[in-house]
Design a protein that fits this description.
With 207 residues, the chain is mainly beta. The chain has two helices and 13 strands. The strands form three sheets. The protein has a seven-stranded antiparallel beta sheet. Strands 10-9-12-13 form a four-stranded antiparallel beta sheet. A two-stranded antiparallel sheet has the order 8-11.
Length: 207
Amino acid sequence: MPSTSSGSNFLINRNDHIVLKGFLNKKSERGNKWENMHFVLNGTKQQLYFFENDKRSKPKGLIDLHSSSLYPVRDSLFGRPSCFQLVVRALNEFLVHYLCAENADAAREWVQALKLYCINTTPAKSSLRHLLSLNIHVFDAHHLPVKSVPYPYCTISINEVKVCRTEAKEAPNPVWEDDFVLDSFTSLFVPPARVLGLNVALPGTSF
C-alpha cells in the first residue's frame, strides 16, 4: 500500500475524506523526465494534490478531478509498466498528467480510488458503459526521410488521448507488424459514440 504522511495536513479540513496518500512518478509536461512526488487524494474536494515530498506543507500543484478523465497507459507508450493518465478538459484547457506507480498493485489501488471521482468513471456513469474492443494492426511505412526520422515509431491516440506506441524501427522503410487490442481503454469513453477520433502519428507527422 502506498506510504502515508501527515505533512500535507494544512490542506485537509477536519471533515475532509482523504482517500489515499502515497508516492507516484509524474512525467514532466515537457520532455521525458519523471519526478517522484507525494500525492494526496481528497475525496471531499474531489482533488488530487501533489508535493515535492511527504514533508512539504505546500503542494506543487493539484489536479481537479471534476474535469478529469481517467485512462490506462499501455507499457509500450513509455517503455515502463504500472502507468495511468488523468486527462483534464476544462474550457480551453487540455492537459494530460501521466502517473506511474511503483508496481502493478499500487497502480491498481490508485486507479480504483480515482475511479470514484473522475468524470468518465464515476458510479453514476457505470450504467452507460459498454464493453468495446478496438483491434489495431500497424504494418509498415515507405520512403520516410532518413535524416529527419532515422528511427520512426507510431503513436496511437483516441480522441487526442495517447494509448500506445510501436517500437522504433529503421527508416526509410520500417516494418512494425504490431498488434494492439484496446478493450479496457475504449470502454471508458462515455457514451461509446464519443469514440470518434483515431490518430496514428509518426514523429513530426500524422495520418
